[in-house]
Write a structure and sequence with these properties.
Blueprint: H1 4-46, H2 58-93, H3 105-108, H4 120-138, H5 150-182
Length: 184
């Protein structure tokens, strides 16, 4: 028969594995995105007619990848909070204290953090937003208020989607910072 300590250790181990798995899934989503964007740019730039309208799919792929990666980032933060702030004190109560990463000084000490431009959020922003901005720029001629047509609508939607992608990335970063502030 399992006691509370056994149950807590199993919950800790499973939550830790889920956190690691989510990091892997997030990175796989970004890798798949990079491959897809590379293929789209290769096809678009190899065309002899210099029609870059194929690039207009990029902001939608970027948004989908952003939703996936940032959902994983939010859950990674929540799992870290669970491990540190819920299970950690429980282990203390049953005299089974052991330091763990989610509550370590190495993670939480501001002086040990990477410089701002090396933060994960800037890498995600660079990878997810830059191709969308290039697609919008190369198709700027579609930004036409006088001769409004289907591709113009797509260009405007791409612009809105790119703004939403940008906001989403930075909102999740704000959420993660909020979670870290809750750590004791």
């Amino acid at each position: 028969m399992k006691n509370m300590g056994d149950t807590a250790r199993i919950n800790y181990e499973m939550a830790r594995w889920e956190l690691i798995y989510r990091i892997d899934l997030r990175d796989r989503a970004l890798n798949n995105y990079i491959v897809a964007i590379g293929a789209i740019f290769t096809i678009a730039f190899s065309r002899s007619d210099k029609n870059y309208s194929l690039l207009l799919i990029i902001p939608f792929i970027a948004l989908g990848t952003t939703i996936i990666t940032e959902q994983h980032n939010a859950m990674i933060g929540r799992l870290g909070y669970f491990l540190s702030e819920e299970l950690g004190p429980f282990f203390d109560e049953i005299d089974e204290y052991a330091p763990h990463w989610d509550h370590s000084r190495g993670l939480l000490n501001p002086s040990l953090k990477a410089p701002g431009f090396l933060n994960r959020v800037w890498g995600h922003a660079l990878l997810l937003i830059t191709p969308s901005l290039i697609a919008l720029y190369l198709n700027y001629h579609l930004f036409n208020l006088v001769n409004f047509h289907f591709e113009s609508i797509i260009w405007y939607l791409d612009f809105i989607v790119t703004v939403f992608t940008t906001i989403s990335i930075f909102l999740v970063e704000k959420f993660r910072k909020h979670i870290y502030k809750l750590y004791k």
